[in-house]
Amino acid sequence: MKIAVVMGGITSEREVSLRSGQAILNSLLRQGYDAYKIDLTKENLVSAFIENDYDLVYLALHGEYGEDGRVQSVLDMLGKKYTGSGVTGSAVAMDKILTKIIAKDLGIRIAKTYGSVEEIDSYPVVIKPAKEGSSVGLYICNTKEEALKAYEVLQNKEPLIEEFIKGDELTAGVLNGEKLGVVRIKPKSGLYDYESKYTVGKTEYECPAQIDEKAYEEASEAARKIHEKLGLKGVTRSDFILKDGKTYFLEVNTCPGMTETSLAPKLATLKGYSFDDLTKIMVESC
């Protein structure tokens, strides 16, 4: 079986994707798989899937044109197998607004959301793109003036406005329906932004999270419910805020990072899976 590890892409998360993809490729080669790299760019966004020879695509793309169902739809039309979630689950999960509506319907606690700056009745708030990850374009606003500026910057990216909940950052993993556990994230800067996520030494990780058992299970089960309801596959990672013993769901990642600082491999170790185990399961469950 020939495996094409597709990485890169044309979004703000390109560099992270390249690092994830290279780590995945190295893992597959270590295990003896016939694998190679495809760097997805604007020039080969569709042709890469038509002109290359492969039996399976291992998707290491983050953000739009990769994690949002569009690449998956191309592969479906070509009749090609790929890792991770399908078109519908990927598309819905990529939209934080839609996902929060579904989470609320499942009885999962979420942060209060506002439809516009004028609706905000209490500060601070978080304003971020509804369809980007890696904390790209995230603003914490303490005043209406700051909120208006942030909203204007993000107006072409469907801004999501929600209350800012100051608490501990948690992430919970699921692998093909199996709950992996929960990790607590401790950024040294106090904010888990892009730099804290992808710079070695900028963040400490409590693995597993040393939190109240009830909150631990609540986050883990909420992640499983979201994974199941959206029909997701492979490994997914759901993010939460923990405040006063209660967890608040933020978003789910259907193609989480696989870099040396990424959370998905850390979560996998809670069930005894190594990095190589994780990539092998992703390949063999397609």
TrEMBL record:
Alphabetized PROSITE patterns for the sequence: ATP_GRASP, DALA_DALA_LIGASE_1, DALA_DALA_LIGASE_2
Cross-referenced Pfam families: Dala_Dala_lig_C, Dala_Dala_lig_N
Entry's localization field: Cytoplasm
Gene Ontology MF: a single term: ATP binding
GO cellular component labels: cytoplasm
Active-site annotation: E13, S134, S262
Principal location: cytoplasm
A biological process from GO: cell wall organization
EC number: 6.3.2.4
NCBIfam families, alphabetized: D_ala_D_alaTIGR, PRK01372.1
Family indicated by similarity: Belongs to the D-alanine--D-alanine ligase family.
Purpose of the protein: Cell wall formation.
Protein name (Swiss-Prot/TrEMBL): D-alanine--D-alanine ligase
The organism of origin for this protein: Cetobacterium somerae ATCC BAA-474
Lineage: Bacteria, Fusobacteriati, Fusobacteriota, Fusobacteriia, Fusobacteriales
